[in-house]
Design brief:
It is a single chain. This protein is an alpha+beta fold. The chain folds into four domains: 104 residues, Trypsin-like serine proteases (Thrombin, subunit H); 103 residues, Trypsin-like serine proteases (Thrombin, subunit H), CATH 2.40.10; 99 residues, Roll (Pdz3 Domain); 95 residues, Roll (Pdz3 Domain), CATH 2.30.42. 25% of the residues lie in helices and 33% in strands. It is built from 13 helices and 29 strands. A seven-stranded antiparallel β-sheet has the order 5-4-1-2-3-7-6. Strands 23, 24, 25, 26, 27, 28 and 29 form a seven-stranded antiparallel β-sheet that branches. A hairpin with a 4-residue loop joins strand 6 and strand 7. The longest helix is centred in the N-terminal third of the chain and has 38 residues. It is globular.
Length: 492
């Protein structure tokens, strides 16, 4: 009897516990379902967040509907000269390995025939006359340009102007009465965390809309002397190049341009204000005339700031002055730290090239420098930046008699080429027929030594190459992929 009583109590206890657990589960389940419902319908929250006054669109839907028709698909055809070599790249895993000589000899007799390359990009129409903004790299060297509107209409595109330094191009199609256009905004007023939308043709999928926020401003990614990129986590993919980055008011605030290979949620756009600055020149002259100061500059690091007796790291340190250039004539010297240009503060080195570049040629400007702890002002008459002067002005890129263009390693380049924790200068271009080309140097090679001298920076590279004379044999220690090798080349 006692045994049966115990069994009954145990059964009652089990039922009670089961009911309790079931009740908790149902309660939790209801809460979970409620949370899931809320999270699966973000448009409700988003719409109320985006709702505003003064004609601001109520949602991404409205922005896409208003701006999308003015976003175009740009397809180009260009000829790649001597591109029989592309077959060599199929055997890339053997580069630098024991089979490289075999494949080099195998391909030696194959004629380097020209091939036609087709590319896709994006752009956006800025006025009823048919002017379209896109990236320079989308239309550079293009022999044929086809512009397709969102409604399927095709137009022949014509390049009006290009600027490789900012990677901006202006093309034109035939004017059409119902041509949709975009409104250009003010990228200077953008704030980190602000909603943005990217529209373009990634991988050829027309009018793809993605959304995200401004992740950062003023990014330097080693793309050129005027780096000042907007960073966004709005999805940007190949084919998006040249398309618009749009704020929630439906205004274009950037030109989608670059991504980091393997970097999810990291895309870069050129601020639209940079395009607005050069558009008049592209329209009138087809190119951009820039000011020239005639100095080499570098970052003021904490160590350099301390050595110069500065309280903070600011300004652009003059590491060299071009003889008889504008700065030299104004008595600016190596070791001066430029802290103000034409009344505007220079907080970091990367700000100076753009300031100088956008200054009209012939204008006389005040340049404030720190020299021996004292502020001094020099009046400089700005010269014109010619293509051959570019290497003198840019602290990170130089093309010399070896026939190569090199660049200092940046975090982005380190990740791209797998050279983390390495020191040296990166070859980014090899001139065809040059000593470097004959010695089989390639873009992506890292120069670690020149004639036994360690190379850790552009300054080291310049110091060693200045010693090279015509007819000299130059010995380089190269890092290529996972291995290192010595390369000897004769300077012609």
């Amino acid at each position: 009897m006692l045994k049966n009583k115990f069994k009954r109590h145990r059964l009652t206890f089990i039922i009670a516990m089961f009911s309790f657990v079931l009740g908790v589960a149902i309660t939790c389940g209801l809460k979970l379902t409620s949370d899931t419902k809320a999270s699966s319908n973000p448009a409700i929250t988003l719409q109320s967040t985006l709702q505003g006054q003064g004609g601001i669109p109520r949602s991404f839907t409205e922005v896409a509907k208003n701006v999308g028709p003015a976003v175009v698909n740009i397809s180009t055809v260009k000829t790649l000269k001597g591109s029989g070599r592309v077959f060599r790249h199929f055997f890339g895993p053997f580069e630098g390995g024991p089979f490289q000589d075999f494949f080099d000899k195998f391909f030696e007799g194959i004629p380097e025939e020209d091939i036609k390359q087709k590319s896709l990009g994006s752009g956006f129409i800025i006025d009823k006359e048919g002017y379209i903004i896109t990236n320079n790299h989308v239309v550079e060297d293009a022999e044929e340009i086809k512009v397709t509107l969102s409604n399927g209409k095709d137009f022949e595109g014509k390049v009006i102007g290009r600027d490789s330094k900012t990677d901006i191009a202006l093309i034109k199609i035939k004017s059409w009465k119902d041509l949709p256009t975009v409104k250009l905004g003010d990228s200077d007023t953008l704030q980190v965390g602000e909603w943005v939308i990217a529209i373009g043709n990634p991988f050829g999928f027309e009018n793809t809309v993605t959304a995200g926020i401004i992740s950062a401003k003023g990014r330097v990614i080693g793309a050129g002397p005027y780096d000042d990129f907007l960073q966004t986590d709005a999805s940007i993919n190949p084919g998006n190049s040249g398309g618009p980055l749009i704020n929630i008011r439906g205004e274009v605030v950037g030109i989608n341009t670059a991504i980091i290979a393997g970097g999810q949620g990291i895309g870069f756009a050129i601020p639209i204000n940079m395009a607005k600055e050069i558009l008049p020149q592209l329209k009138e002259k087809g190119r951009v005339t820039r000011g020239w100061l005639g100095v080499m500059v570098q970052h003021v690091t904490p160590e350099l700031a301390k050595s110069f007796g500065l309280k903070e790291e600011r300004g652009a340190l003059v590491s060299d002055v071009t003889p008889r250039g504008p700065a030299d004539k104004a008595k600016i010297k190596r070791g001066d730290i430029i802290i103000e240009f034409d009344g505007k503060p220079v907080n970091k080195m990367t700000e100076l090239p753009r300031m100088v570049g956008m200054t009209p040629v012939g204008k006389k400007v005040a340049v404030k420098v720190l020299r021996d702890g004292e502020e001094k002002i020099f009046w400089v008459t700005i010269g014109e930046l010619k293509e051959e002067k570019m290497a003198e002005f840019r602290p990170s890129e130089h093309e010399l008699d070896l026939g190569i263009t090199v660049r200092e390693l940046t975090p982005v380049l380190e990740r791209r080429y797998g050279y983390t924790q390495e020191r040296g200068v990166l070859i980014i271009r090899v001139r065809r027929g040059s000593p470097a080309h004959k010695a089989n140097l390639r873009p992506g090679d890292l120069i670690k030594e020149i004639n036994g001298r360690l190379i850790t920076s552009i300054d080291d590279y310049r110091a060693q190459t200045r010693k090279i004379k015509k007819g000299d044999i130059v010995r380089l220690l190269i890092k290529r992929g996972e291995g290192t090798l010595y390369v000897a080349l004769k300077v012609g």
